[in-house]
Amino acid sequence: MPATRTALLAGATGLIGSEILQALLAEPGIAKVLVLARRPLPVTHAKLQTLVVDFTRLPSLEERVDEAYLALGTTIKVAGSQEAFRAVDLDANLAVAKAAMAAGCSRIALVSAVGANARSSVFYNRVKGELEDALKAMKPGALVIAQPSLLMGDRKRLNQPTRAGEVFAAPIMKLLSPVIPRIYRPVQGRAVARSLVNTLTIAQGVVVLASDRLASIGAG
Predict the structure, then answer these.
(1) Of 20, 139, 152, 218, which is most buried with the most CB atoms under 10 A?
(2) Number of neighbouring beta carbons within 10 Å of residue 123
(3) Which domains are present in the chain?
(4) Which pLDDT score is estimated for 155?
(5) pLDDT band at 218 (very low <50, low <70, confident <90, very high)
């Protein structure tokens, strides 16, 4: 079948977003990958189009979008404050989703986190949960939510700061893996990305993928 779909991606320079980008570029059914980014990407491909944008003043999209992938994320340490963290992880992702749906998108994939809950006493989990609830309220035809636990991957390759929690927790989590509930086990960023791309085209309604399903679907 000829490639006909246009995919929108925000967060293409992150650990999972960069893997989503590669998966989309290799997907036979994708004709174009439209990336929204704060700066040009160091990647060129016949399918790839990058729009440099300000996520606080996101413009309307001029072409139809079939599916959207939301992978924008930061840490409070990098962002500098809870307000700045919220502006990225909640506001920017939600703005992209609204722009995508205004452009005809009916399928959305989100990189969230284990423990996401809008009523959580933990700020990080609460923001993630608020975003999930906001996207559900928009009622896309399909919403696939990845809720990974500890993420594994090479952040140095992406020139990203190493996250101390991942560095120290990874060997401990691997050692305890046999007794840790599967939804809390570490998962590779590539597996998360592949799971979202593989699931979104066939999903109906809301689909939540915890670490164990992400590892299974994204294996290989």
Answers:
(1) 20
(2) 12
(3) 5-217 (3.40.50.720)
(4) 47
(5) confident
